[in-house]
Write a structure and sequence with these properties.
The structure holds three protein chains of three kinds. By secondary structure, chain A is α/β, with parallel strands linked by helices. Chain A has two domains: 124 residues, 2-Layer Sandwich (Nucleotidyltransferase, domain 5), CATH 3.30.420.40; 142 residues, 2-Layer Sandwich (Nucleotidyltransferase, domain 5), CATH 3.30.420. Chain A has eight helices and ten strands. In chain A, helix 2 packs across helix 8. The chains are: A alpha/beta, B alpha+beta, C alpha/beta.
């Protein structure tokens, strides 16, 4: 089988400093995206464990797998979780969820915790969509748009390019800066047309990194034009898989003239994190 | 909240925006749309809110350019926008 | 009098030669990445093969998205103008022209004199163009020529959720994994693109007769879907991909 350059590594994590058995509310969020799925487990609102993996063709299994993997080696089982919220594109396919909530609401809520309550603008660049969200100090959505119609500006678009150039997706951010000078961005928005444009550039003798730079900057430009619809206010943060791609992030920051906040959390878990926080809030509401 | 439903692709921006602070969920915009694009539903972006609001149906969100095309040709005011007394609906194109 | 029409499309360059407005030759070549050079070599070839010298050609008109590449043309016209001229010359009864090429789709309405009244273009997005069908035939692993005939074998209606060609590729792969018949998927794709083109045509307010031109007019599955969507019987001229070049050749200074 040919090497799959777009394939990123799946992993799980747990916080050894938390003794979950002494926690009062254990809540979970499962974000079943079109490309990746995450499960987050919180103990009294603090991050206890999570997993991040590719979504399989069967969504209910993806949700279950992500949850099982987050629970691995924690000593916790599904029965110990008080409330689970499903979110994301495949949120209706989380069989063990108590409730489902849209990813827009969950991302805003998750980012409010991950980046602090000064966060006002959130850009989530997922596998098959791009979301721009404005939110208030409580993590409540005040303005949003979600573009899931077009692959331009999504992780999938970047995967198509990684594959075309035969470069590993995890390295293309840095590689895109290994150029003599910044090229003009690829002119086509449409990924299909951008791909033929890139093929032409390669044939004209452009090095791969330069083509990558041209596409990364086109992607940054495209996302900026989406953000303009909701007005960008600081603090600003980027979540989702593309947040890990410095080639897009740095170009985006340059065009906006704003630096994105960074976080020690994995940026891909914002949706699941928010879902788990809603889970906690809903348990508190029930217990009142 | 301003809810922007729709998309931007290579050919342009196609968003219907609903100002949920203005929308009272009256539903006057629903029957007037010839393509049946709108509906009244729970606020799916604020799970703790109780009020209902107008929204673009899921199945139209990725094809508004096409769904709304019949109303766009003749330059007349759009029925959905005219029906809303609270001016909660706008189109980006 | 000999005139030439050169249509530099996103995918193919098409050239037509007319003598006293009758077609004497037609040729095409892939536009490739060197469209300018390819236009010149195709033009030389068509003249040579027909024993015509360059100064016998009294007028050269270019059209297509790459019409500026033809620096030896006497004039250039838009795709809309060329397509309408070409179609209405052959079929004066046509009031609506649907032109679907490799990277663009157009709906054009014209009056009984062949004058353009209104048009709508889908460009810069593969969803409404031949590129969509091409990408899908790759995903289905069937030759593009077999796409239309294969889809005609199906009567099923499977909805395609994805609009974007990139996402539709993944959807096709999932459908194949779910053991959906290729012919049913091919039909679903024809229906999807026909629905998008039809709504564009509705936007310009279509009237009969309707003609379909451009490379996608060769796809019989697409034609069936268009017919059922618009409740019409569309006309497809011979060599539908050459109609814009033909129209251009007819337009002289």
């Amino acid at each position: 089988m040919a090497k799959e350059f777009w394939r990123w590594k799946e992993y799980n994590w747990k916080n050894d400093e938390i003794d979950w058995k002494s926690g009062s509310i254990i809540s979970a969020g499962v974000d079943v995206g079109s490309v990746s799925s995450q499960a987050v487990i919180l103990v009294d609102g603090e991050l206890f464990a999570f997993s991040n993996m590719r979504t399989g063709s069967n969504s209910p299994m993806s949700a279950q797998n992500a949850m099982n993997w987050a629970l691995e080696n924690t000593g916790m089982t599904l029965e110990n979780i008080h409330y689970t919220v499903g979110t994301g594109y495949g949120r209706v396919n989380v069989p063990f969820a108590n409730k489902t909530i849209t990813e827009i609401a969950c991302h805003a809520r998750g980012a409010n915790k991950m980046y602090g309550n000064t966060i006002r603008t959130l850009l989530d660049m997922g596998g098959q969509d791009c979301k721009a969200i404005s939110c208030d100090e409580k993590g409540k959505v005040t303005n949003f748009l979600m573009n899931d119609k077009c692959a331009a500006g999504t992780g999938r678009g970047m995967e198509v390019f990684a594959d075309l150039l035969s470069l590993p997706i995890e390295e293309i951010g840095d590689l895109s800066f290994e150029v003599d000078e910044e090229p003009e961005p690829v002119s086509s928005t449409c990924v299909i047309f951008a791909k033929s444009e890139a093929t032409g550039l390669l044939r004209a003798g452009w090095p791969k990194n330069k083509v990558l730079a041209a596409y990364s900057s086109a992607m940054a430009h495209r996302v900026v034009s989406l953000l303009e619809r909701i007005e960008i206010k600081e603090d600003f943060a980027i979540t989702g898989g593309i947040a890990k791609n410095s080639g897009v992030v740095k170009r985006l920051e340059k065009e906006l003239g704003i630096k994105a906040l960074t976080t020690t959390y994995d940026t891909q878990i914002a949706g699941a994190f928010g879902a788990a926080l809603f889970g906690k809030a809903l348990v508190e509401k029930e217990r009142k | 909240m301003i809810a922007n439903y729709g998309y931007k692709d290579g050919s342009g921006d196609f968003f219907i925006s609903i100002d949920t602070d203005k929308c009272n969920g009256c539903g006057d915009c629903i029957p007037i749309c010839p393509a049946n694009v709108l509906e009244i539903r729970d606020n799916e972006f604020d799970p703790l809110a109780e009020e209902k609001m107008a929204a673009v149906k899921d199945e139209h969100r990725k094809k508004l350019k096409y769904s709304c095309a019949p109303c766009k040709g003749d330059g007349k005011p759009l029925p959905c926008m005219s029906a809303c007394e609270l001016n909660a609906i706008t189109h980006s194109w | 009098m000999i005139s030439a029409g050169i249509d530099v499309g996103a995918k193919n360059i098409k050239i037509i030669l007319l003598r006293n407005n009758e077609v004497i030759a037609r040729e095409k070549i892939l536009s490739g990445f060197e469209a300018k050079e390819n236009v010149v070599s195709l033009y030389k070839k068509i003249l040579e093969e027909n024993g015509i010298s360059q100064n016998e050609v009294s007028s050269i008109t270019s059209t297509g998205s790459g019409r500026k590449e033809v620096d030896f043309a006497n004039m250039s016209v838009t795709d809309v103008t060329a397509a309408t001229k070409g179609v209405t010359t052959i079929y004066p009864s046509v009031r609506t022209v649907i032109d679907v090429g490799a990277e663009e789709g157009r709906g054009i309405r014209c009056d009984n004199n062949g004058k353009v009244i209104d048009f709508s273009i889908n460009e810069k997005c593969a969803a409404g163009s031949g590129a969509f069908i091409e990408a899908m035939s790759r995903a289905l692993e069937i030759p593009i020529e077999d796409f239309g005939p294969m889809s005609l074998q199906s009567e099923k209606e499977i909805p395609m959720n994805a609009q974007c060609a990139v996402f539709a590729e993944s959807e096709v792969v999932s459908l194949l994994h779910a053991k959906t018949d290729k012919k049913d998927i091919a039909k679903a794709i024809c229906d999807a693109i026909a629905a998008r083109i039809s709504s564009m045509v509705r936007k310009v307010g279509f009237e009969k007769d309707i003609a379909v031109i451009g490379g996608v007019a060769h796809n019989v599955g697409f034609l069936r879907s268009i017919n059922s969507n618009l409740e019409a019987e569309v006309i497809v001229p011979d060599y539908p991909e050459y109609i814009a070049a033909y129209g251009a050749a007819l337009i002289t200074e």
